[in-house]
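ARCHIVE CARD
SHELF: 3
SLOT: left
DATA:
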Amino acid sequence: MIRHSPGPTPTRVPAAPPETFDDPPLTIDVASELMGRFGFVAFRTPPEVTIPDSCLMAILRDAPTLQHFDPELVTYWAFRDGHGRLETIDRAARSPITGPFSWGRIRLIDRLGNRNSFVSFGGQLTTTVVGADALLVVFRSSSPILRLPGHSQFGDRLGDDVLAFFGRMVPCLWGSADLERLIAMASPDALYGAFLIHERARMTEGESDMTDGSRPAMQRAMALLAVKEPGALEAGGRLLQALGLAAAPRAIRHP
């Protein structure tokens, strides 16, 4: 479960990238050093606020380093022309790219078809040419970017739950351009709030796979979100109502 405990920020480059969302945050410089050796790194920035930003950085090179994982293709979702669309980035992509990315799955794919995947609630994407042979891709979000089980990583504990929530959400968007636009324009924190509220309701109703020990952690996550982004839970509750996924039309109370 996401605890959002900031922990100490490493001043020296660790031996390996963070393995879970709960690992200590990293500075951009430390993450960049790791990425040069490992091809990508998912991390949290040092806590300027209660819940620090979540980042995913990957470097696409003309030739593989053969050191760890060499991503050559990145896929993600973006809202274009009134609909969610799967977008791709490779070394031939025009750069710089700057703009929002949408909720859903992010995939890093190497030349052999191996994948490391993530799931997010949306945020900002930038790309930068690095030297003569590499493209730096950075996803950054105010809400968690969570690992899914992949070629060289274990999944974060909430990753599959977020995917399941999106799976329940997608059919609600079929046939409604207005609703699809509403969800696409929602802030990452509002979508995160909607997920937390929905999952708490499923836990209360005995429908969630989470253990009873996860309940206090879920409450802490909701309380932290309320401190970091006042109104995110109310906005999330309104999104659930619009989607028809709310358990009952009652006001959302902060934990």
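SLOT: right
DATA:
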Amino acid sequence: MPLLNFQATKNLLLKYKIPFFETEIFESEKTAVKFAKRIGYPVVLKIFSSQILHRTDVGGVKVGVKNEKELKEAFSDLLKIRKIEGILVQKMGFGREIALGMKRDLQFGPVLMFGLGGIFIETLKDVSFRICPLSKKTAKEMIKEIRGYPVLKGQRGKRGINIEKLVEIILQLSKLSLENPEIKEIDFNPIFVDEKTAKVADLKFFV
């Protein structure tokens, strides 16, 4: 499936008020440096390509970039990768990693998936599913249903995440999925969540 371009993706996030880490796409190292200086280090650099779905498979992600020198080195390395349309520069996120996605089923329509993000989504396969539209109650049930919920709630002296902020993203994704039938699949992974905020760091829209 084709990948929605960067600007169209960003416009959808803004329209549905889905919080995300400030991100821009660059072809020029000079403008990337200016942007990173404005948003503050550390930052993450990622390739953007409609032909490369898994950036990490081709070394297309540079995390923890701490200063201008490191940014220039990372930018130069990423430009060597073929078939890219630009390089994304993004404020680096911290917190618990959550995965949220949507697939459009021929019979049921948009179906949302929720689980622990990052590497856990592949290794643990600890996920829950709901058919859109979702209510606030259903979204909370979806979160509580996974086996890893105690980790999110907080245990052994660690603070829990802001469940309400996560619920808001789930509800907005449900609305977005219902109102944009041309979008066949959505992948938010990771969403970084802590006790105060929840923001999408990495995402893809397939049409």
